[in-house]
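Researcher: Going back to the complex we discussed earlier. I've cleaned up the inputs and rechecked each line, so this should be the final set. Can you rerun the prediction on the complete assembly and write out the structure?
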Amino acid sequence: MNNWNFEIDTENIAWLHVDMQDSGANILSREMLEELDHQLLSISQHNPVGLVILSNKTSGFIAGADVKAFAGMTDRHEAEQLIHHAHEILDHLEKLPFPSVACIHGFCLGGGLELALACSYRIASDDADVRIGFPETRLGIFPGFAGTVRSTALIGHLNALQLMLTNRNLNGWQAKNIGLVDEVVPTRQFKSAARYLIHNRPHRRHPPLLQRLAGVSLLRSGITTWLKHQLSKKASIEHYPAPYALLDHWNTSAGSPQQMALSEQQEVARLLTGETAQNLIRVFLLQNRLKAQKGDPEFNPAHVHVVGGGLMGGDIAAWCSLKGIRVTLQDQSPEMLSRAIGRAQKLFSKRLRNKLKVRDAMDRLIPDHLARGVPRADVVIEAIYEDAEAKQALYQQLEPRMKSDAILATNTSSIPLEILAEKLQDPGRLVGLHFFNPVAKMPLLEIVTMDSTDAAVVERALAFCKRISKLPLLVKSSPGFLVNRVLLPYLMEAMQLHKEGVPAAVIDKAAKEFGMPMGPIELADTVGLDICKSVAEKMGNTLAIEVPQELINMVEAGKLGRKSGEGFYRYEKGKAVKQESSQPVDKILADRLIGRLLNEAVATLREGVVEDADAVDAGIIFGTGFAPFRGGPMHYIENYGREAMLEKIQQLEQQYGERFKPDSGWQPPSPTGRGSG
Amino acid sequence: MKQQNLLEGRAVYIVDGARTPFLKARGKPGPFHASDLAVAAGRSLLSCQPCAASQLDEVILGCVSSGPDEANIARVVALRLGCGHKVPAWTVQRNCASGMQALDSAAKDIVSGRAELVLAGGTESMSHSPVLLNPLMVNWLAEWNRSASTTARLKQLTKLSGKHLTPVIGLLRGLTDPVVGLSMGQTAEILANRFGISRTMMDKYASKSHLRLGGAIDNGYLEELVPLYADDGTLYQQDDGVRRDSTVETLSKLKPVFDRKFGSVTAGNSAQVTDGAAMLLLASADAVEHYQLPVLARIRDVQWAGLDPAQMGLGPVYAMAPLLERNALNSSDINYWEINEAFSAQVLACRMAWEDAQFCREELDQQQAFGEIPCDRLNVDGGAVSIGHPVGASGARIVLHLAHILKRHRAKNGIASLCIGGGQGGAMWITNDARQESDKAGGEADE
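Model: Rerun complete. Updated structure for the full complex:
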C-alpha cells in the first residue's frame, strides 16, 4: 500500500504525505488508518524532531471516514471494535514523543478533522474553499474517532458542541478564531509555517474561561437541557436521535477524558448500527450514486443560453453563472430580464461573499433580449411558459442557429418531450433538464429522455449537470416525470383533507411529524397555486386526478400562494400565518397523505420511469426532501413490510375509495429490492 | 512632410460594435464605473461573434480618467470579458479623442500584421471623476502623521481651517487646459467671437441635436445600443440626456457658465457630462475570412493634427483637410459627417472655417475652400449635445454610428472627426464598400 509516504529532510523533520490510491479524495478507511499506524511506527524509529502531515490531493486534506463501510453494519460489538481501534491509532499519533503538525487545505471533515485534532498543531490554508467541520450528525451519528474528547478540550465545550450540532463548516480564519487551528497561511507557506511550529513549539492556548466553565459538571445538565430545547425546534428526537445522544454523552462523561472516550465508542456504535443512521448513510450513498454519473468527459460547456427570464429561467441562468459558466439570458424585452439580474446579484452576494467574485459572476451573466448568444451556446435551455405550441415555435427559431453539438434542453414540467420534439429537424437532440424551485437550494436535476433521445446527448446532459454541481436523475419522459408525479397525489390528498374541514396547519403538522421538511399545504403555496393547478390539469388526465374546485376558485380569486401574499395561508413578510395547535394529530392524516405518495412511487417504478427502486428513493429525497431518515419511500415500504403496507393502502381504498386503489406494482416483489447504491 | 495613407495596404474592417446608453452625470457617482460600461458593451458584442474572446489578439481602450481600481483599464476589461490571461491589453489617452485613438492604434496593428482581430473602443465614467484633497490638506495630513505626541497632535488640530477642506474637483481640472489655463468652454467662446456665432445660432443648433436624437430613437436607428443593467436590476435603455421638448426659447433661459454673465456658451448648447462606453471589433481580411465574420464598414485612413490650444474646437478642420487632400476627396464625395459636438459653437465654427477660402488658404494650406458640409449630412442622428460626451468613448461612438448611418443609407463615404482638448484634432475616413472589396463579408453589410 502506498497511501501514506514519508521522507525525512535535512532538518530531521518527517514529512508524511497522504495520497489515497485510486480515489479523488483521502478517506479514512480501516486500511488507511492501519497503514498510518504502521508509518508512525517507522517514522518514530528515525527519531525525527517533528512530523508534518500533508495531503497530496487537490480536493483537500481528508474528507472523512469511510461511510461506505458503515452501511449495513448491524453488529454493535463489531462497530465498537472498529471505533476502538481508530481511537488507539489516533492516540498513537497524539502521544508521539515529538511535535506533529497537520497542514489543512480543502476538505477536512469528520474523521479528517479528528486526525488533525490528534496532532500537536494545525495549520489551515487561507483559501476560501477550506471546509473544516463535523458533518457526523447528518449521518445519524456523532464524531467517533475521539472527536468529542479532543474538540472540547481544544476549543472549549460550547464551541465544540456548536460545531458538532450544527455541522457548520469553517474556513481557515473562522477555525482560527475559535482556536481550532493555530495558523492560517497561504498554501505556499505550509512548509515554512510547519517548520516554525516544530522548531519553536509555541504553547497551545487554552480555551477561554467561559468555554472551560461550561464543562463543569454542575452546569452541564442545565446546558444540556437548554441545548435540547433549542434542538427540538429544528429536529425531533424521534426522527433525529443523534444530536440528543451527543448531548447526553457529553453531559454524563465530559468530566473525564478517559470516560468520555469510552462513552463515545459505545454511543457512536449504538447509533451507527441503529435504523436512523443506517437510513441516513443510505441517503449519503444514494447521493454518491447520482454523483457518479459523470457523462461525456469531452463535453465542457463554456456558454449556456437560457430562454425565459422568469423565476425558473432567471434562477437557472444565475445558477450556471455562479458555477463559472458564461450565460446569455433571453426574454422578450430588457424589462423582463432586469428582475432576474437583480435576483442573481442577491444570490451571488450571499454565496460568494467576495466583491470581485460577485462582479465576475455578474459579468458572466449577460442579458440578451435579442437572442444573440444562441450560436455560441453549448447548452440551450428553454424555460418559457408551459405552452407546447409556443415552445415548438421557439425551437424552430433556435435549432438552425445552434451549434451542431449543442444540447437543446427544456425545463418543462408537464409537456411530453415527444410533442415538443415533433417539429425539430433532429428530434433526438432534445432532452429535458427539469430544475426544481428554488434552483439554488434544490440539489436534484431530472434529466428527461425519450426513447428517441440521442445517447450522446444524454451523456452531454450528464456532464453539464456535473459541471453545475447538481445531482442528476435520469427519468423517462412521462407525465410529471418522477418528482412531480409522486408529489401531486400527495398534494391533492392534502387539499382533499382541507376540503373535509381539517385546518391547513394540522395537515402540515401531520406531514412534518412524518418527517417531511415542509407540509403539503405550505408547499403548494410556495410552489404557487397557479402552477399547482396547471400541473394538476396537465397530469390529471393520465393520473385520473380531478383538479380540486377550491384550487380553481383560489387561483381565479388571485390567491396564488406565497408570491401573492395569500393562498391557503396568509403571508406576512414572506412567512405563513399559522394557528398552531398543541393537540396531537390523528395518525390517519399522515397515512392518507403518505399512502398516496407511496402508491404513486410504486407505480413509477412499475412503469420504469426511473431505473430502479434506489433511483426512486434518491429522486424523491433530493427532489422533495422526503424524510431522509426513512431512507426514501421504497426503502420505507421495505422496512415497514411490503405486505403490511399494501394492506394499509387497501384499507384506505375501502374507506376512501378509488384514489387509493393499490397500483399493480405492489404485487410482484420489488425487482431490485433494497440496495445501497 | 506629408503623411501617407498607411491603411491602403492591408484592409481593416469594422466587424460590428456596441455601445451603452450614455447616462448623464447627475452630481453624484453614477451606477457604473468605466470598466463596468466597457464590459457591458463588450460582452454583448462578443457574445454573438463566431470567434471567442480568447481569440482576440489584443484589446485597446481609450479612457481619459479611469478609477483608482482600473489602472490600465483595457486589461481590466479584457479579463472581465473572459479573454483569458493570454490576450494583451493597453489603454490610450488622447483626451476627447481617446476612443478614436484606440481604433487608430488597433488599425495600425492590423495593417502592420501584428494583429488580426482587435477589440477596441472607449469608455468613461465622468460621474466617477475623482474629488481630490487640496495641497494644503495633503500637507496638513503629512504633519499629522508625523506628530508623535498628543500635544503635537492637538497643536496640529488647531491649524485646521475651512480652507483645508475645499476639495479639488478632478473633472473641472481635467476640462481646463493646463497650458493656456482656459476652460474648454472658454475656448468655445473664443471661436464664437472669432466667427461671429451668436447665442441664438448655438441654441438653435443644440435644439436640433435633441430633435434629431429623439427621431433616431423613435425610428430605431440606434442599432448599436445595448441596455445597461445595474446590479440591483435597474434598467437603462436609452441615452437619458435627450430633451425632446428642447427649443431655442427654453435654451435661451440658461445662463452662460464659462464666460459668466456676458458669454454665450451655456450648459444647454454644450456637450453633456456623461458616462458611457462604445466598443468595436476590428479585423483584417484574413480574420474576416477565417472566422466568417460579417463586415459593417472599412477604416480607410486616419489623420491627427495640432493647433493653438485656445482654439482647440477647430481641431476637426485641421485634421480633415490633409485627410481629404491625401485621398483626393472633396466635401461632395463624403456622404455623411460626424463632427463631435463638444460645443455647438465649435461645430458651427468648424463648418464656417471649412467653407472659408481665406481660412483654408492661410491655415490649411489649401488653394481654395472645401465645399459645403450640408446640414442634413452632418450629425444626422444628434450628437454630444443631446447624447452626451463621455470623453474617452465619444471617438469610438461617432465612428460606430457613422458606419450604421452609411449602412442605412447605402452610402459610401463617411468622415468622423473630433476636437481635442489641448489643441488637437482627429479625423477618420470610413467606407461602406466592404462587400465589393471582400466577397467574404457576409450578407448584412449592404442591404
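Model: Worth noting: The mean pLDDT of chain A is 93.
Researcher: Good, that matches what I expected from the previous run.
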